[in-house]
């Protein structure tokens, strides 16, 4: 079971931000995809099935490890 430290928050800073969950195990696979528009917030948690989250687009991501910015400009 995941702990509270495994929670992440993603806030879209532009329309069309993609949040992609990937599975845990010997084969990494796409589990779920969400699309966020500007200002929308997604709160998620890592579980025994989800081990990775990929964010594509301009967003603020908060985790127990800190806050980071993603962008769509390839920087």
SSE order in H/E notation? Answer: EEEEEEE
Shape from CA axes? globular
Low-confidence stretches: none
Q: Number of domains in the coordinates?
A: 1
Helix content: under 10%
CATH homologous superfamily placement = TRAP-like
Structural class: mainly beta
Q: Under the CATH scheme, which architecture would be assigned?
A: Sandwich
Strand order of the largest sheet: 4-1-6-7
Arithmetic mean of pLDDT = 85
Which CATH first-tier class would you pick?
A: Mainly Beta
CATH topology: Immunoglobulin-like
Which radius of gyration do the C-alpha atoms yield? 12 Å
Number of helices: 0
- Secondary structure: number of strands: 7
* C-alpha end-to-end distance: 35 Å
Strand content: over 45%
Largest sheet: number of strands, sense, barrel closure: 4 strands, antiparallel
């Amino acid at each position: 079971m995941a702990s509270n430290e495994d929670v992440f928050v993603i806030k879209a800073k532009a329309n069309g931000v993609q949040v992609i969950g990937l599975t845990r195990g010997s084969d990494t696979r796409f589990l779920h995809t969400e699309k966020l528009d500007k200002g929308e917030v997604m709160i998620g948690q890592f579980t025994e099935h989800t081990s990775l989250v990929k964010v594509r687009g301009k967003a603020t991501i908060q985790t127990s490890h800190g806050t980071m910015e993603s962008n769509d400009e390839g920087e």
